[in-house]
Structures are given as structure tokens and as C-alpha cells.
Amino acid sequence: MYFLTGWPRRLLCPLRSEEEPFHIQPSSQRFYFAVLSETQISIWFSRPSVLIVSYIESAKAAAQFGFYQKAEWKPDDSMIAVASAKGYILLFDVLGGGDDKSLYEPVYPKGSPRVKVTPGYKEEQCAPALSLEMKKPVDLEAPITSLQSLQEDLLVCTADGYLHVLHWDGLGSNGRKSICLTTIPFSLDLQSARGGPSLDLEEVYICCMEYCVTLDGFAVVLSDGRLGFITPLSNTITADQLQGVWAADVNDGTCVAVNNKYRLMAFGCASGSVLVYMIDTTTGSMQLSHKLELTPKHFPDIYNKTGPVKLIRWSPDYSVVMVTWECGGLSLWSVFGAHLICTLGEDFSYRSDGTKKDPVKISSMSWGAEGYHLWVIPNKQEKRRQEEEKKEEEPQQQEEEEEKKEEEEEEMATPPQPSLQAGILQFHFIKSALTVNPCTSNQEQVLLHGEDRLYLTCGDPSQVHSTSDPHTHVHPHNGSPPHNPPEPDSSLSQGLSTLLGHKHWHVVQIHSTYLESNWPIRFAAIDTAGQCMAVAGRRGFAHYSLFTRKWKLFGNITQEQNMTVTGGLAWWKDFVVVACYNFTDQQEQLRLYQRSSNLDNAFASVTKLHSDTLLLNVFRDLIIMFRADCSICLYSIERRNDSPYPTASVELLQEVSMSRYIPHPALVVSVTLTSVRTETGITLKAPQQACMAESIMLNLAGQLIMLQRDRSGPQVREKETPANNKKLLPFCPPVVLAQCVENVWTTCRSNRKKRHLLEALWLSCGEAGMKVWLPLFPRDHRKPHSFLSRRIMLPFHINIYPLAVLFEDALVLGATNETVLYDGLQGSSEPLEALFPYCTVERTSQIYLHHILRQLLVRNLGEQALMLAQSCASLPYFPHVMELMVHVVLEEEATSREPIPDPLLPTVAKFITEFPLFLQTIVHCARKTEYALWNYLFAAVGNPKDLFEECLMAQDLDTAASYLIILQNMEAPAVSRQHATLLFNTALEQGKWDLCRHMIRFLKAIGSGEMETPPPTPTTQEPSSTGGFEFFRNRSISLSQSADAINTGKFNLQKTFSMPSGPSTKGRDVECAENMYIDMMLWRHARHLLEQVRLRDLGCFSAQLGFELIGWLCRERNRVARVEDFVYALKKLHKDFLWPFPVIPGGSISSPLKNGRCRTVLSTRLLKSQSADSLLNSDMDTAPPQAASANHTWLEGLEQRSKDMDTASSSHSNQHSPQTHDAFLSLLTNKVEEYSVGSATDLTETSSVVDGDWTMVDENSSTLSLSQAELEHISMELANKGPHKSQVQLRYLLHVFMEAGCLEWCVVIGLILRDANVIKQVIGFLDSPEVPQDTVQSVRNGLLAVDTWVSTDCLGYKPFLNLVQPQLQDLMDSAAEQVQPEAFQASSQSLKLGGPEGLGGTAAPRPEDSRGATAPLGLALPSLEPPGSFPRPPSEDCPPEQTEEQGEEEGAYDCTLS
Predict the structure, then answer these.
(1) Cα–Cα dist 1444/1432, whole Å
(2) What is the distance between the alpha carbons of residues 1015 and 1005, in angstroms, rounded to a whole number?
(3) For residue range 827-854, what is the model confidence (pLDDT) as tens digits?
């Protein structure tokens, strides 16, 4: 509503005087302020804030009259009355110095474009030169307690119990009347007035009085502390025509202030609270509306120590009230009691070092024009205390001050040292546009305005198109903004993040040219999209667009000065709708100006009005206006494009007179059209009619009144003449919906999915929080229950002051004051402003959905709550809403002292089970509540053990882990261990490695008695769980270093988790038992993986959890690490590692010789180059890629093509039949980054070791000239390779199995890698005596099975088997039977002859041999393999077998089956 900003500014009087000001009184328009000191009256101007004139009483007169005490202005600002201590009223005439005389004039530098446009028009507001003349004083012969100005009269209360009515023009016309208080009959209400008991008013006088126009009476505080209200029964104030009512049970009143707009009287009390009364219209008695007081919750140390209330001041728009106490401090409340600011707490009352500041005591205060400033005069003692410590430096100070006055700065720099004449403090405020222009309530933006700037929540600039880069929108229309503004519905298209993304405001400085001549700004409005703003000051108006970042002002200054906005501003599409008064025609008008055309009356569409407009609002294509004769007018607007520039035509639809219901037009706070209806009369069948203007909402002094269209008459004619008929539907009599309403929000949009929220009416009710008038819908279009009302009013509290409602998003937007401490001015001579922190305004927002759901559940409307919640379930903070609902109800019920007869928690729990996030809502809520409340919570929602099991069944392991922590606290250790084991096994099965690590810690913690510590996130550096052996991703292992590298990598990992190794200091036995228990589970899981041939999972498991794979495999070598079915294992590996089955190209069959030749040549050349370059440590894989790189362009083309086709190689891994050429091409489509099937570029990225070798090979390979067919072969081989990552992983596993001696697995991996060296190695190992006979037999049988499968289902493997033929033959020979080897030979032989790759096969073994020799483990440089796979596949296929055998010797069993 109102927010403090910056530091207060200090105004110092330039005149030398020993006296201190103690009273300030504003004129009726608040442009002038009369400031009193003991013998001196000064008049200040508001902008610039300067002293105009000062009148100093002579010593003789001062002795006669006594010191000045109070002042009051005549309503037309032409006179001032001053009350003096000895009972005199001194009247002063305020004389203007003529039109062209000004005290201060702006001086422009030479060459400045600013020149006077029209004679007699002042471009800036200059402080006028005034003078004061004293008239004859009036002696009332008793001390004066109160002054009050009426139109022609001045009311003066004196301490002898009289009420004097003086005429402003002096005593000449009709003298003065005196009314004795004792003659006024007082009673509790007007009905019992005639015969009832009267107050005993002897010795009692009025000590404070204020006149209320809309109540037509005086609020008075009597000297004995009683509160009363005096009504004149006729137009004249005479003794026999006055009647008083008094408030029961109050006798400590101190002061009073009345609110004319809301008909409220605020009485300050000696207890420190403010009682706000209203007059009951039926009985005329005083009724307490609400109290304004500091709460012990927010102000524990000061709430009862404030002393009596000293002053109460309503803002000029009557929407907020400022209160100060005897002990000092300022506090601001909204009209119905929402607390906004208090300077008695937080940064206002404490310095940054924690010492307490003394609150500033205030002797007088007054709001400035439009409420942008609060003028405050601090107490005399405050200043004296400071001045004792200062020397007098007045002369030069005076000049400084005069200059200072003319600068208009929002925040002050360090002020000059104050002189003896202490100053006036000016606090700066920014306020919501809703306070004066309530038509902004149907928008979803917050708009605040200060005296010279606008603050708006336009969201995150990067997301709102217009704010991100204005230029993009300027070009199409040559600098004018686009003519098609966003559609009305796009206010939400900005998305939530734009409205909530950050706490900063978009600040728009109001154009200085407009501001200088038309200050203060009275109205501001923003359009629905939040892109255009309009402001209106004293005359004319101006508008601003975020598209162009420019202001538009009237080109013709006379047009601007000839109109003043009376009823407010609003936007309709791209038109500004203005209700204004035209001075030349002396007529009220409604004007529409188009945003993109120049601001000129020539482009405006003007409609004449019969009466003054007080309020204006827009709903869809209708304008609703409230006029001074208490009638409401509806106009329709239509856009016209027939003229060269777009215009709008306005047509009067309907007039509704409200004079029967509205006592005074000034009482209407807001008027709005809505589509809300209660469906009395005929129920509307057609859903689209929900968008019609169904009702008028009128806020009458805080009472919300609804006038609904009367549809009870015959409805048939609608079809015949819908257009005319709609206009004329009458309105039903008004109904009061709510009391104490400050603001109303409604929307004209509709959304079938969120009807509850969009068709509701939102009310802000001050201290009572918010209310929502929610529609209730029958479920599934069933017939509604007869007893179920159509709407329900639900109250709820929020912690912020609401300024806008986001309807679909179930959010309230607001703003809040924040403070920043400033310690630069410490010390005893601290100036007054430094006592105040620097104030800023921040955006806030709050969810309210959980309040509404809860209110519906309390009222047994669970079905409605469910429909509402389901419509909002997609909101990002919906889980938070659910948690909040449980949490709030739980806190209330579990901590209540009395038993609750009908607890709500079970209902809430049942309600939440309807949503999938039930389990996590409960556990999150439990973990955020204290342990003492858990029993109550789980008694309502169910046993945590059952909930844990539900999580496991739903595969929601993270939530299950949270439940574990609850079980650990609520159950015995055995139970939590049992559940932890369950979860651990499930997490292992699903590969949730992070969770597994937590579980290992958790289980150990249970064992070693660390029961209290729930497992936090582990601090060890874990490889990220992306499913690969990440520490090998960018490392190519050459054969010489590979073993060390892998071992160290793996063992380091293990040590980061204290696994069985490493004794612990405390409870070693327990620890051993725990570790053993965990190891058993890990072993069981590894066995399980190996049994299911899930090697990839096994590798991840080992890498992620630091499982000692090699040691375990050694133990399991002859048990689970056997391969039962080689063919199944091979297929499974193809599938798991996305490894394509090898393919024989279709083209090669037709021309065997050509391809064969090419292959031989290629590989022999490569061999030579390789051996020559002594690339002994690297794989054969290095060579082919280099050959490929010689003909780069073709490969790149291939790679490009592979990017376009998007099938993953895994799609082919299941097809065992030979694939045609096309299929192979699609194999290349694998994502070309990390998983690419291998291209020249891929190689260079991943292989660091090889970079040196590349150049060497290039020298040789450059001599190669490759034909098209040869290139096809190379690409063919590339296609037969799997992703690079898989290759690294397979090589790693191969190494592990070799180390552990699991030879059968080495054979399988050797086969899939088609690495001849591995096969040779393994077969070599099989001869060793250590290898058990059944292993040899198993390898032999397995290879035979593979050979049979290859011959029938996967011919692509044939060339490789041919390549390792000699080793296979040896293996077969070593066995007793000779039959199988022959069969083996025969099949491979036939393939050799038939398949083109036979030749290649024979040629290629040599490279493999050379490699095998140097690399016994068969660990080729992983990074190089993919590209090189073509010439090498045969050779690669061999090594796998070899490795397998070798692995078996070393103990290969453990890995395979699990």
C-alpha cells in the first residue's frame, strides 16, 4: 500500500531564530504548510520544499497574546487562524504576490531549448511570493483546546467547556455563537436519545475534535478521556440542534482523526492502542470496527511501553493511517488494520552493533500532497540535546541551506551540520496505484508510484520480449511501437518466472518536463500485458511504453493544460481511456487516445458526459463509470479502422441510479464489472456466458455491494435480438457480500481447467487477511445438490500485504519494506536522519492454495477441494502447497493444550493420498517438524513401515531413504537395519549408486552406534554415476602402463570408502561384523549380476562402490565366474554394450577378388608403417584411422550422413542375421559425440597418447591411394565397431578378467572385440598345468557352440574365426576327439573361399601377432580402436579368446555369474 523509501530529508529554516517549530498544519490541497514556533508563523511550499514567508510577533504583542499553539487554514487557503496561549484567535490574511511574482525562478543555461511556450503559462511550479497580514484578534477568554475549519465557519473549543462558532470573515456579519457542552444531550445511541440518561458533563470540555464530512458530525475526545460523536440535526450549528452519542467503556482517549472516505473515526488512547469506530447506520450508535495496536508477537520488547497515542494522521487518499506515541516512533496501518511499517523495531531501533537507538519523539506531523511525503517536526528536547554539542556556524550555513532547498534530491548525502534552527524531516513514500486508481485491480502486475518514478513488476527482462531488446520491436514501424500489442491473455504468457524471477523492480523515471509543470502525480495505470503505463498529474497526462522506452507527452502544451483527469485512467487494448474535465468547454468528457499515434486531441475520440466522473474501470469491451450523482454508466467501446489512424467509438449502453443506496458519492472506493454471478433466477446453461458482464461490484466505504443482472424475466428474446437485449438487462437490488474490504480482484479471462480460481472473487480485508468468494461446481456435470450453495466465502491469512493476484498460479504478489543500516554517522552528533536506516521496497509473493484447500476440508467440501487441487497439480510448487497444508494443521493440532473434538489431520491425510506425491509429502513434512510431533502425524497418516514398503513397491527409492531416517528414530535398530537392507538391495539392483553409498554409511552408522546421525551426503569424491567407468573416459591405456593405471585407479577408489580393510579405532568387533554384513550383500549382488551376464552393470557396480572386483573374481573363478552358454553371453554383451554384430558387406560378395586384394594391400602397408614407427605399445587400431585420414573428405561426408540418420546402434544389436550394406550405414548413425561409431575426428579428440604417432603414420600412409571399394571396406569396419565408450569399458573388463584368471570370460570379450591376440593368449594359457581341465573343456565347447551359431546366424564373425583358425586347431588337437576341430576347419575353410574377407583374414594376422607380443593383456589403446576396426576385426577377434584363457588361469570365475 504505502512504503517508505530512502532516508528522510531534512529541511532547515534559513532564518536565524532561537525558537523551535513545534506544529505543522497543511492547507486543504497540501501545497502550503503553516509551521508554528512560539512567536513566529512560517509558510512553506511543498515542491520545491522551501520557506516562502515568516511572520514574527513583536515582543509586546507576544506578551499580550501569549505563545502560539495551533493553526488552521481556511478551506480556500486565503486565511490562517492561529490560537495563542492566552485564549486569543489571531486571524492572518494570506496575500498572493500576483501571477508573475515568484520567490524562486528556474534559471536555464544559455542555449537551453526550454523557452516559455505560452505567455502566462508557468512551465515549472515556482514557489509563489506570499505575504501575511494580521487582522483583528478575537479573545475567547479561556485556553483554546481545538480548532476545526468548516466551509464558512471556524469551530473553536475552549477549556471552559464551550464550543465557539466563528465566521471566517470576522465578527462583522453574524458575530459568534457559543454552545455550552452541558447543553448537548449525549446517549449511547440516537434511538434512546430523547429520554435516555445523559452524560454528566460538568467540568468537562472537548480537548480534541475533528469534523467528518461524510458522517456530517464531529468526533470528539472529552477531557475525561471519553469518546463521543456530535451530530448537527439541521444545517445550522445551534445548541438545540446538536445531539451526541458516546462510546461505552472507554475513558482514556487522547486524540482523534476521521476518515471521510470510509466513515471511520480513529481515537488514540492512553494505553497506546488506536480504537477505530464507525457509526451504526440503523441505531446511530458508535461501534468498534477494529483496533490498531502493536502485537507482542512482532514487537515483544516495546508493545506495552509506547505510552499514550500522541498523533493520528490519515493519508490524503484515506487508505492508510500514521500513528505516533509519546515515547516516539512512527507506525503505519492500512485503513482496516493491516500493519505496514513500524519504526520501533528491527533496524529502526537498533544500530548494527546491537546498541539500542532512542526513538525520535515527534511533536507534530502532516502528510504532503498525494501522500508522497510525511512532514515531521521532532520534539524540542531532541534537538536541544544535539545542539549543546555544536558551535554556531550560522552565516555560511544559511547560504548553504538556501542552495540546498532548490535541489530536489530523493536521497540525502551527508547533511551539513544543523544550525540552531532545527529542521523539519520529510519522509518519502511510494504507494500502490490501487490507492487512487482502483481500476488496476484486474491486472496481474504490481504498479507502485513515487513522486517522480514508477515501480513495476514486469518480470525478468530476458523473458519479457519487450524489455530484453527494445530495438527489435522498433524497426518494423519506424520507431513507433508495434500496433498489435500482446493479446489480453498473454499477461500469463510471461510465465511465472518472469513475475517471480527476482526481487528487483523495473523503475521508470517520470518525464521531468511533464512532472515540473504537473506535479504531483495523481493517477497511474498499467495495461494487462504490463508493457504500457500512463500517469496523470494536476493537468493533462502522459504515457510510456516499454517497447520503445519512451514517454509520450502532449505536443501542444495548451491541450495538456486545458484538461484535468478526474475519474482516473485505464488501458483498453492499445488505447488510454481517460475521464477528464475540459476547462475550455467547461465540460466533463470521456476520451480515448491511441497509444501509437501522437498524443494530440486530433487523434482522440471524445464523448461528452453529463456529470462529473469519480471512478472509471474497463471490463473486456465495456467501460463502467461511477459519477458524482451516484449513478453508474456502462459504455461499450469498439475499435474502428476506417480512418487513416485507428480510433474507438463509444456508445452508452445503460445507466443505473444508485442514489437510494449511496449516502455520499465520495464513499465509493471502487467500482468494477465482473462475470461473477450467484445464479439466482434461471441457471445459465451455456458455459460461454460466464464471460459476460454479469454483475457490478461496488466498494462502498469498505462494504462490498454486488448488483447482479436480473435474468428472472423471460429469456426467449435473447436469440432474436441478442445484441440489443444484452444491453438492457436490468440489475437486481444490491446485496452486501463482505465488510472491511480494501481491494477487490477479479479477472475477465476464462479457463475451463481452472474455473475455481478464475471465477472467484478475491478480497483484501486489512487485518482480517484475505477472503475468496469461491464458486462450487457439481462434479462431472451432475445435478447440483439443492442444499449446496453456489458460492462460499473463505477467509485466510497471508503474511504480506496483497497488491495483485495471479489467478491461475494461485499466488498473491505484494511488496515489503526492507532496511539497510548505515553506520557512517556514528557518534554523539549523529544527525536525525542517521537514526533511520535506508529503506528499500522489495517484491514478495505468497502461495495461498493450502489455506483454501484447508478451509474447504473444514467445511466438509472435500470433493470441491479435490477438484481445485487437481486443477493446480501441474504448478511447480504444488508439492510445497501440500506439505504446508499438512504442516500447518499438524503444528496446530499436535501442540494444542485442549483435546480437539474434531481433528482435521486425518481428513488432510486422506485428502493427500489422492495425489501421487503423498508419500514424499508426508516424509518431507515429518523431517521438517520436530520429533515430538511425529507420533501424532503417523497416527493419522499410517505406520512409517508401511509407507516405506509402499515407496519400495512404487520404486521411489529416494523417498524410501527418507522414511528410513524416520524409522531409525522411531523403531528398534534391528527394524531399521532390516529395512535398510531391503532398500540397499533394491538400490543395488536399480543401479542407484549415490543411494548405495549413503546406505553403506547408514548401515555402518547403525552398527557402530551412530544412531542419531542421519546419513548426510558423502564427502568422498565419487565418480559421477553416468553409468560408465568414468575415470577411463578420456584416458587411453597403452599396454605397458595399463595394468598399473587400472589397479591404482581402482584401489584408490576403494580406500575412500572404509571397506573391510582398515581397522577402526572404536568398536572394532562391531565394525568388522558390520563390514562383513555389507560385504556379504555386495558379494551377493555381484554374483547375481554375473549369473545374469550383466557385465556392464557389474563394471559400474565395481567402479561406483569401489568393489574389489579382481579379488572377488579370483575367489569365484571356478564357481560363479564360469560361462555356461558362450553364445548367450556373446549376444548379451552385444546388447548391453550397444555393440553391433559384425556384417559382411553385400557388395563384397559379387567382387571377392577386388576387395580381397585391397584388404591385403592395405593391411600389409599399414603393418609396415606400424612396425617401422615402433608403435609397439599401441594397438593395431592406430593404423587404419590414419589411412582413413588420408582421404578425409569422404569420411566427413559419411559422418555428416550419420548425423542425419538417427537410429541407435542398439537397434541392430539384436539382429543376428547378416545385415546388408544399407543396414550398416544406419549403424553409423549413433550419436557422433561420445558414443560415435568412430570417425577420424573422434579419434583425435579422445586419444592423447596417439597424437604423437599420428604424424609418423601419415608420412607413410600418404603414399596409399585408396579406391572407392577400399574406402567402403574401411567404413564397413567402422560400422562393425561399437561406441568408443563401450570399447573402453570392454577393454577394462577384459583386463580385470585376465588379472583374475577368468579365461572363459576373456574368450567371450575377445570374440566381441574381435581381438586375435586375446584369443591366442588365452589358448596359450590353457596349456598351463594350473588351469583346471573343466575350464579347458568349457572353453573348447563354448567355441564350438559359437562356431555353429556363427555359421547359421551371424556370418559376420566368420572371417575372424578363420583368422584364429590355427589357435583353435591347436586347442582342438589337445583334446582327445579330433572330429570337432575338423568340422571347425571345414566350416571356416568354406567361408574363406566364399567370403571376400578370407584373404583379409590371412593378411591381417600379422599385425595382430606383433601386437599380441607386446600386449599380453590384449589391452589395445581403447581410443584408437573404433576407427581402426576394419582391417583389424579378424585380428581383434582372436585376442579375445586368448585373453579369456589367460584370464581363467588367473582366476576368472568370480566375474561371470552372480
Answers:
(1) 19
(2) 8
(3) 555 666 667 889 999 999 999 999 999 9
